[in-house]
């Protein structure tokens, strides 16, 4: 389990400090070249006797020991990203390059009385977010190539029981020594969705809702459901849509997570038309098909990665570009000193409980109105959600629904026949012959709990009086009224029953 506590940025370590990893290798720190939300990134070199050069090919990520993100990332690399595993997978799948950074080692360090955790990685280049901020959109061929590369990486990650959980341009970096390849980095939010082969159960948790980067986070994450494979693929679909069209339909409402969630539901429910209208012609058709396949996945269902990959590959055939060819990305408009975009972090203030309930109610109303127009769409995703929602509604109904009130009818004939029917359902030994006997019979445990009408003498006299003044009563009924009782109540084993006096 990752360390608990509030994550905070560490005090910088001095340049030139030497660190020793768990394997006994030593590393010298160079200049600090960046920082994330909770950690610092330094150039590093295994040559500790000379200063670290600016073109070093290693970096070290440093965080306080009690911080959680680096711990989660470290566990992912140790369990799932060993180089022998990656090489074996590439050979099996005939992949020339798998976009997962190389992990070199990790360890602990002390400085000024504080404990640090560090991780040594291969150095990567510029991130796609800087390029996208400069270009504002990517051409279709590049989007499809990126999608295929990332899909290959996700297939490997998922096969090793992990999901990434935070796919976005800021976490996709070009290679430093091979800038025509892209790498999926930052596994601080990675999640082990299937430990030891046991998939996590679908369970909604509103307190954990809307986690992740707001533009791209999955519908499951909006509901507080633990990340899964379909969530990663859904996020990838949103990323490709933004890169191709320049923006997403909900980007103007990022401060309102519930509205963003509603917009995503509308987009997915109205596929493929909702995606096709975002760009002219059929340039979004592959992404529409991709998202449609992902939306139909059950929560714990294994995606058909080859089918999804073929959808994107088919889109490249007309352009004559190979899906595994070098990425043609221009960084001319970008400067390496330009900071990554700051508006993409999912750290927006969450709504209060009352605001969440109000927004959630509006969202449910929109969904109901949408279903009235389009009809229900039954998918495996809907089945997953339906089981959870139906169970919660049953619990809520039992809590809110008061006990069904006893029916005090002023129609004595109806009362009579209902009581007689009740006796039949309770399998009494005989049918009542008079209203007095009915009163006796209704003192049984089974009858008195649901129908206490005749248990009171006053109510019995009232009914008798009403019946006596009813001029339309059949003679047979009036005769039954004045007939003396032929049975009495007796106690047996604390349960009151009616029987004939012997």
Task: Write up what this structure looks like.
One of its GO terms (biological process) is cellular response to oxidative stress. InterPro entries: CK1_Ser-Thr_kinase, Kinase-like_dom_sf, Prot_kinase_dom, Ser/Thr_kinase_AS. Residues 27-313 form the Protein kinase domain. It is built from 17 helices and eleven strands. By secondary structure, it is an alpha+beta fold. The strands form three sheets. A six-stranded antiparallel β-sheet has the order 1-2-3-4-6-5, covered by helices on one side. Strands 7-8-9 form a three-stranded antiparallel β-sheet. Strand 5 and strand 6 form a beta hairpin. The longest helix has 22 residues, at 353-374. The termini are far apart.
Question: Which key features would you list for this structure?
Answer:
502 residues, globular, disordered C terminus, 6-stranded antiparallel β-sheet, Transferase(Phosphotransferase), domain 1, alpha+beta, 3-stranded antiparallel β-sheet, Phosphorylase Kinase, domain 1, 17 helices
Ranges with pLDDT <50 over ≥5 residues?
Answer: 336-353, 370-376, 402-455, 486-502
Average pLDDT value?
A: 78
Overall body shape: globular
Strand order of the largest sheet: 1-2-3-4-6-5
Domains, number: 3
CATH superfamily of the largest domain: Transferase(Phosphotransferase) domain 1
The ordered string of helix (H) and strand (E) elements is EEEEHHEEEHHEEHHHHHHHHHHHHHEE
Just name the CATH architecture of the largest domain: Orthogonal Bundle
Mind telling me the CATH class of the largest domain?
Mainly Alpha
Main sheet attributes: strand count, strand direction, barrel closure: 6 strands, antiparallel
**Can you count the helices?**
17
SSE class: alpha+beta
CATH topology of the largest domain: the name is Transferase(Phosphotransferase), domain 1
End-to-end Cα distance, whole Å, is 75 Å
User: How many strands in all?
Assistant: 11
Strand residue content: 5-15%
Radius of gyration: 35 Å
Give the % helix.
40-55%
């Amino acid at each position: 389990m990752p360390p608990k506590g509030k994550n905070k940025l560490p005090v910088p370590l001095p340049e030139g400090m030497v660190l020793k990893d768990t394997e006994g290798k030593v590393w010298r720190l160079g200049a600090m070249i960046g920082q994330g939300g909770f950690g610092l990134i330094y150039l590093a070199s295994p040559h500790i006797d000379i200063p670290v050069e600016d073109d070093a090919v290693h970096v070290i990520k440093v965080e306080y020991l009690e911080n959680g993100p680096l711990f989660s990332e470290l566990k992912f690399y140790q369990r799932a990203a060993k180089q022998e595993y990656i090489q074996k997978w590439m050979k099996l799948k005939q992949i020339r390059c798998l976009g997962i950074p190389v992990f070199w080692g990790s360890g602990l360090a002390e400085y000024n009385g504080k404990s640090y955790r560090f991780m040594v990685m291969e150095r990567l280049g510029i991130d796609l977010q800087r390029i996208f901020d400069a270009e504002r959109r990517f051409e279709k061929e590049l989007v499809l190539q990126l999608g295929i590369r990332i899909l290959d990486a996700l297939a490997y990650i998922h096969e090793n029981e992990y999901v990434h959980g935070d796919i976005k341009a800021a976490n996709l970096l070009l290679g430093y020594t091979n800038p025509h390849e892209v790498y999926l980095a930052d596994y601080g939010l990675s999640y082990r969705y299937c430990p030891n082969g046991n998939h996590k159960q679908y369970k909604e948790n509103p307190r954990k809702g809307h986690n992740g980067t707001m533009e791209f986070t999955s519908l499951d994450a909006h509901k507080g459901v633990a990340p899964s494979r379909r969530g990663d693929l859904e996020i990838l679909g949103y990323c490709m849509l933004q890169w191709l069209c320049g923006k997403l339909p909900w980007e103007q409402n990022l401060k309102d997570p519930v509205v963003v969630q509603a917009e995503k539901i509308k987009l997915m429910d109205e596929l493929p038309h909702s995606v096709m209208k975002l760009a002219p012609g059929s340039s979004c058709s592959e992404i529409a098909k991709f998202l449609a396949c992902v939306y139909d996945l059950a929560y714990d269902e294994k995606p058909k990665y080859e089918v999804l990959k073929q959808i994107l590959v088919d889109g490249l055939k007309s352009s004559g570009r190979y899906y595994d060819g070098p990425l043609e990305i221009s960084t001319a408009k970008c400067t390496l000193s330009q900071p990554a975009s700051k508006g993409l972090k999912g750290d927006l203030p969450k709504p209060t409980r009352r605001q969440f309930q109000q927004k959630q109610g509006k969202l449910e109303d929109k969904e109901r109105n949408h279903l009235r127009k389009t009809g229900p769409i039954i998918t495996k995703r809907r089945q997953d959600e339906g089981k959870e929602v139906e169970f919660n509604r049953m619990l809520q109904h039992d809590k809110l629904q008061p006990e069904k009130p006893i029916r005090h009818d002023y129609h004595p004939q109806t009362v009579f026949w209902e009581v007689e029917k009740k006796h039949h359902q309770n399998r009494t030994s005989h049918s009542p012959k008079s209203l007095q006997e009915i009163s006796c019979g209704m003192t049984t445990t089974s009858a008195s709990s649901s129908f206490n009408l005749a248990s009171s003498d006053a109510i019995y006299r009232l009914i008798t009086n009403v019946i006596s003044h009813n001029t339309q009563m059949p003679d047979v009924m009036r005769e039954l009224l004045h007939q003396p009782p032929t049975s009495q109540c007796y106690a047996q084993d604390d349960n009151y029953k009616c029987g004939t006096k012997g």
